[in-house]
Amino acid sequence: MERTQFFSLQAGRTIEMPRHSSARFSIGQVVRHRTFDVRGVVFDIDPVFANSEEWYQSIPEAVRPRREQPYYHLLAENDESSYLAYVSQQNLLADIDGGPVDHPQVSELFEDYADGRYRMRRGLTH
Prior knowledge:
This protein is mostly beta strands.
């Protein structure tokens, strides 16, 4: 399998990954966590785990997700708060019935909401 590398500022190191990776969800899509009562809107995608080793090791080994899968940066919310989340693909499901996400930063990154997804602000796309 062909591999490539990229530097992750968040991890502070070079990440090795397969040359081809397939994300199930897209930027602007509203998703929910498979296990916990958390939902959010995707604002960035890493093709493989690209956070710190300390973050990864803090997850109990019995439920620790695989590294070699897409990881999603979410503007997340639950009943108590809004926050940024970093979630593996295996732990996410599409959330088409939940409506818009009530995170205070949504309007900074996204415009219209329709059919379970947001449209990124034009000035932020490339």
